Amino acid sequence: MSAAASSYAEAPTRSITAGGVTYAYRELGPTGGVPVVFFLHLAGNLDNWDPRIIDPIAKEHHVITFNNRGLGGTTGKVPATIEAMADDAAAFIHALGLDRVDVFAFSLGGMVAQALVGKHPSLVRKLILAGTGPRGGKGMDKVARVTYWDILRATLVRADPKEFLFFNRNSSGKRAAKEFIGRVQERSAGRDLPVRIQAFRTQLKAIRNWGRAEPADLSTITQPTLIANGDNDRMVPSVLSEDLHRRISGSELVMYPDSGHGSIFQFHEQFVPVAAKFLQR
Protein backbone atom coordinates (compact mmCIF):
# COMPACT_ATOMS: atom_id res chain seq x y z
CA MET A 1 0.00 0.00 0.00
CA SER A 2 1.32 3.48 -0.85
CA ALA A 3 0.37 7.01 0.13
CA ALA A 4 -1.67 8.61 -2.67
CA ALA A 5 0.73 11.49 -3.36
CA SER A 6 3.46 10.82 -5.93
CA SER A 7 5.82 13.55 -4.70
CA TYR A 8 6.48 15.54 -1.54
CA ALA A 9 5.22 18.70 -3.25
CA GLU A 10 1.79 17.02 -3.48
CA ALA A 11 1.71 15.21 -0.11
CA PRO A 12 -1.30 16.38 1.94
CA THR A 13 -0.73 17.88 5.37
CA ARG A 14 -2.27 15.69 8.06
CA SER A 15 -2.68 16.15 11.81
CA ILE A 16 -2.67 13.98 14.92
CA THR A 17 -3.04 14.91 18.58
CA ALA A 18 -0.91 13.69 21.47
CA GLY A 19 -0.55 15.16 24.95
CA GLY A 20 -2.74 18.13 24.09
CA VAL A 21 -0.59 19.06 21.07
CA THR A 22 -1.90 18.71 17.50
CA TYR A 23 1.06 17.85 15.26
CA ALA A 24 1.13 18.75 11.55
CA TYR A 25 2.83 16.12 9.40
CA ARG A 26 3.12 14.73 5.89
CA GLU A 27 3.86 11.23 4.66
CA LEU A 28 4.96 9.73 1.39
CA GLY A 29 6.02 6.37 0.03
CA PRO A 30 5.10 2.72 0.63
CA THR A 31 3.82 1.81 4.08
CA GLY A 32 5.10 -1.22 5.92
CA GLY A 33 8.62 -1.77 7.17
CA VAL A 34 10.41 0.74 9.40
CA PRO A 35 9.38 4.35 8.59
CA VAL A 36 11.93 7.14 8.23
CA VAL A 37 10.97 10.17 10.35
CA PHE A 38 12.61 13.48 9.35
CA PHE A 39 13.61 15.94 12.11
CA LEU A 40 13.69 19.60 11.06
CA HIS A 41 16.30 22.35 11.35
CA LEU A 42 16.11 25.64 13.24
CA ALA A 43 13.07 27.76 12.25
CA GLY A 44 12.01 25.12 9.74
CA ASN A 45 8.53 23.99 8.79
CA LEU A 46 7.22 21.19 6.56
CA ASP A 47 7.98 23.16 3.41
CA ASN A 48 11.70 23.43 4.16
CA TRP A 49 12.58 19.84 3.23
CA ASP A 50 14.33 19.45 -0.10
CA PRO A 51 12.09 17.31 -2.36
CA ARG A 52 15.22 15.97 -4.09
CA ILE A 53 16.03 14.22 -0.82
CA ILE A 54 12.50 13.27 0.28
CA ASP A 55 11.22 11.93 -3.06
CA PRO A 56 13.98 9.41 -3.85
CA ILE A 57 14.08 8.06 -0.29
CA ALA A 58 10.27 7.72 -0.38
CA LYS A 59 10.54 5.45 -3.41
CA GLU A 60 11.63 2.63 -1.08
CA HIS A 61 10.61 3.84 2.39
CA HIS A 62 7.62 5.23 4.25
CA VAL A 63 8.77 8.81 4.87
CA ILE A 64 7.21 11.01 7.57
CA THR A 65 7.97 14.70 8.10
CA PHE A 66 6.51 16.65 11.01
CA ASN A 67 6.57 19.95 12.86
CA ASN A 68 7.47 19.66 16.50
CA ARG A 69 5.49 21.56 19.12
CA GLY A 70 4.92 25.26 18.42
CA LEU A 71 6.28 25.23 14.86
CA GLY A 72 4.42 25.86 11.60
CA GLY A 73 1.01 24.22 11.74
CA THR A 74 1.64 22.36 15.02
CA THR A 75 -0.03 23.81 18.11
CA GLY A 76 1.51 24.62 21.48
CA LYS A 77 4.61 26.46 22.61
CA VAL A 78 8.16 25.55 21.60
CA PRO A 79 9.91 23.75 24.49
CA ALA A 80 12.83 25.48 26.18
CA THR A 81 15.17 22.47 25.99
CA ILE A 82 16.36 20.02 23.37
CA GLU A 83 15.43 17.16 25.70
CA ALA A 84 11.81 18.34 25.93
CA MET A 85 11.71 18.57 22.12
CA ALA A 86 12.84 14.93 22.04
CA ASP A 87 10.01 13.92 24.37
CA ASP A 88 7.52 15.66 22.06
CA ALA A 89 9.00 13.83 19.06
CA ALA A 90 8.54 10.54 20.91
CA ALA A 91 4.93 11.46 21.73
CA PHE A 92 4.26 12.19 18.04
CA ILE A 93 5.83 8.91 16.89
CA HIS A 94 3.89 6.88 19.46
CA ALA A 95 0.65 8.69 18.49
CA LEU A 96 1.12 7.32 14.96
CA GLY A 97 1.17 3.83 16.47
CA LEU A 98 4.88 3.34 15.74
CA ASP A 99 7.31 1.69 18.11
CA ARG A 100 10.42 1.58 15.88
CA VAL A 101 11.64 4.19 13.38
CA ASP A 102 14.69 5.32 11.49
CA VAL A 103 15.52 9.00 12.03
CA PHE A 104 16.85 11.38 9.37
CA ALA A 105 17.85 14.54 11.23
CA PHE A 106 19.35 17.82 10.06
CA SER A 107 20.95 20.58 12.18
CA LEU A 108 18.78 21.27 15.26
CA GLY A 109 16.89 18.10 14.33
CA GLY A 110 20.13 16.18 14.83
CA MET A 111 20.41 17.48 18.39
CA VAL A 112 16.81 16.45 19.07
CA ALA A 113 17.54 13.04 17.54
CA GLN A 114 20.54 12.51 19.83
CA ALA A 115 18.40 13.40 22.85
CA LEU A 116 15.67 11.06 21.60
CA VAL A 117 18.13 8.15 21.41
CA GLY A 118 19.35 9.00 24.90
CA LYS A 119 15.85 9.13 26.43
CA HIS A 120 13.97 6.64 24.24
CA PRO A 121 16.66 4.31 22.85
CA SER A 122 14.33 1.48 21.87
CA LEU A 123 12.39 3.80 19.54
CA VAL A 124 15.24 4.35 17.06
CA ARG A 125 16.68 1.68 14.77
CA LYS A 126 19.04 3.77 12.59
CA LEU A 127 20.22 7.37 12.74
CA ILE A 128 21.26 9.85 10.05
CA LEU A 129 22.80 13.03 11.50
CA ALA A 130 23.52 15.85 9.03
CA GLY A 131 25.02 19.26 9.84
CA THR A 132 24.76 18.82 13.59
CA GLY A 133 26.79 18.49 16.76
CA PRO A 134 26.83 16.91 20.22
CA ARG A 135 25.69 18.37 23.51
CA GLY A 136 28.57 20.32 25.02
CA GLY A 137 30.49 20.30 21.72
CA LYS A 138 33.13 22.97 21.21
CA GLY A 139 31.61 25.99 19.47
CA MET A 140 28.01 24.73 19.66
CA ASP A 141 26.99 27.75 21.73
CA LYS A 142 28.14 30.12 18.93
CA VAL A 143 25.31 29.04 16.60
CA ALA A 144 23.07 31.94 17.67
CA ARG A 145 25.72 34.56 16.90
CA VAL A 146 26.39 33.18 13.40
CA THR A 147 22.66 32.84 12.73
CA TYR A 148 21.81 36.44 13.58
CA TRP A 149 24.79 37.72 11.56
CA ASP A 150 23.80 35.75 8.46
CA ILE A 151 20.16 36.81 8.76
CA LEU A 152 21.37 40.43 8.76
CA ARG A 153 23.59 39.81 5.72
CA ALA A 154 20.71 38.17 3.86
CA THR A 155 18.27 40.95 4.78
CA LEU A 156 20.60 43.59 3.32
CA VAL A 157 20.44 41.94 -0.10
CA ARG A 158 16.82 40.74 0.22
CA ALA A 159 17.82 37.08 0.11
CA ASP A 160 16.50 34.05 1.98
CA PRO A 161 18.70 33.66 5.12
CA LYS A 162 19.24 29.98 4.25
CA GLU A 163 21.29 31.12 1.24
CA PHE A 164 23.85 32.48 3.70
CA LEU A 165 23.41 29.99 6.55
CA PHE A 166 23.47 26.79 4.47
CA PHE A 167 25.83 27.56 1.58
CA ASN A 168 29.26 29.01 0.86
CA ARG A 169 29.26 32.47 -0.68
CA ASN A 170 31.38 31.46 -3.67
CA SER A 171 30.05 30.87 -7.19
CA SER A 172 29.20 27.17 -6.67
CA GLY A 173 27.63 27.83 -3.26
CA LYS A 174 25.53 30.71 -4.55
CA ARG A 175 24.30 28.61 -7.47
CA ALA A 176 23.44 25.70 -5.14
CA ALA A 177 21.62 28.09 -2.80
CA LYS A 178 19.39 29.48 -5.56
CA GLU A 179 18.60 25.97 -6.80
CA PHE A 180 17.73 24.78 -3.27
CA ILE A 181 15.45 27.77 -2.60
CA GLY A 182 13.69 27.07 -5.90
CA ARG A 183 13.13 23.42 -4.99
CA VAL A 184 11.60 24.11 -1.57
CA GLN A 185 9.15 26.49 -3.27
CA GLU A 186 7.87 23.86 -5.72
CA ARG A 187 4.81 23.21 -3.57
CA SER A 188 2.23 25.76 -4.68
CA ALA A 189 -0.85 24.77 -2.65
CA GLY A 190 -1.42 23.95 1.00
CA ARG A 191 1.84 25.41 2.23
CA ASP A 192 2.69 25.32 5.92
CA LEU A 193 2.35 28.22 8.34
CA PRO A 194 5.51 30.31 8.85
CA VAL A 195 7.54 29.84 12.03
CA ARG A 196 6.95 32.65 14.52
CA ILE A 197 9.84 34.88 15.69
CA GLN A 198 9.34 33.86 19.33
CA ALA A 199 9.50 30.18 18.39
CA PHE A 200 12.76 30.81 16.51
CA ARG A 201 14.27 32.64 19.50
CA THR A 202 13.26 29.86 21.89
CA GLN A 203 14.91 27.29 19.61
CA LEU A 204 18.10 29.35 19.41
CA LYS A 205 18.26 29.64 23.20
CA ALA A 206 17.78 25.87 23.53
CA ILE A 207 20.67 25.30 21.08
CA ARG A 208 22.92 27.66 23.05
CA ASN A 209 22.10 25.87 26.31
CA TRP A 210 22.72 22.49 24.61
CA GLY A 211 26.14 23.76 23.56
CA ARG A 212 27.00 24.94 27.07
CA ALA A 213 25.74 21.80 28.84
CA GLU A 214 27.85 18.95 30.16
CA PRO A 215 29.19 16.97 27.17
CA ALA A 216 27.01 14.00 26.25
CA ASP A 217 28.19 10.40 26.65
CA LEU A 218 27.89 9.32 23.02
CA SER A 219 29.03 5.78 23.79
CA THR A 220 25.38 5.10 24.68
CA ILE A 221 24.43 5.49 20.99
CA THR A 222 24.67 1.93 19.68
CA GLN A 223 22.35 2.39 16.69
CA PRO A 224 23.97 2.31 13.22
CA THR A 225 24.72 6.00 12.53
CA LEU A 226 25.52 7.89 9.33
CA ILE A 227 26.98 11.39 9.80
CA ALA A 228 27.19 13.95 6.97
CA ASN A 229 28.37 17.53 6.58
CA GLY A 230 30.28 19.94 4.40
CA ASP A 231 33.91 20.76 5.11
CA ASN A 232 33.10 24.45 5.70
CA ASP A 233 30.03 24.50 7.97
CA ARG A 234 30.08 27.91 9.66
CA MET A 235 26.75 27.43 11.44
CA VAL A 236 27.48 24.13 13.24
CA PRO A 237 31.27 23.81 12.79
CA SER A 238 32.36 20.87 10.64
CA VAL A 239 34.74 19.64 13.35
CA LEU A 240 31.67 18.71 15.39
CA SER A 241 30.66 16.15 12.76
CA GLU A 242 34.13 14.64 13.05
CA ASP A 243 33.71 14.72 16.85
CA LEU A 244 30.41 12.82 16.56
CA HIS A 245 32.08 10.27 14.28
CA ARG A 246 34.94 9.65 16.72
CA ARG A 247 32.61 9.25 19.69
CA ILE A 248 29.78 7.18 18.19
CA SER A 249 31.16 3.67 17.84
CA GLY A 250 30.92 2.21 14.34
CA SER A 251 29.49 5.39 12.81
CA GLU A 252 30.09 6.35 9.17
CA LEU A 253 31.12 9.86 8.12
CA VAL A 254 30.76 11.54 4.74
CA MET A 255 32.16 15.05 4.26
CA TYR A 256 31.51 17.04 1.09
CA PRO A 257 34.18 19.42 -0.24
CA ASP A 258 33.76 23.15 -0.68
CA SER A 259 30.35 23.20 1.00
CA GLY A 260 28.72 24.36 4.20
CA HIS A 261 25.83 23.56 6.51
CA GLY A 262 23.50 22.57 3.66
CA SER A 263 25.97 20.20 1.99
CA ILE A 264 23.41 17.39 1.75
CA PHE A 265 21.20 19.71 -0.32
CA GLN A 266 24.06 20.98 -2.49
CA PHE A 267 25.28 17.40 -3.06
CA HIS A 268 21.90 15.67 -2.98
CA GLU A 269 22.69 13.57 -6.06
CA GLN A 270 25.72 12.06 -4.29
CA PHE A 271 24.24 11.94 -0.78
CA VAL A 272 20.85 10.31 -1.44
CA PRO A 273 22.30 7.01 -2.73
CA VAL A 274 24.57 6.85 0.35
CA ALA A 275 21.63 7.50 2.70
CA ALA A 276 19.37 5.05 0.85
CA LYS A 277 21.99 2.29 0.98
CA PHE A 278 22.54 2.94 4.69
CA LEU A 279 18.80 2.70 5.40
CA GLN A 280 18.41 -0.40 3.23
CA ARG A 281 21.17 -2.45 4.88
TrEMBL record:
Gene3D superfamilies associated with the record: alpha/beta hydrolase
AB hydrolase-1 domain mapped to chain residues: 35-265
Name by which UniProt lists this protein: Pimeloyl-ACP methyl ester carboxylesterase
Organism annotation: Pseudarthrobacter defluvii
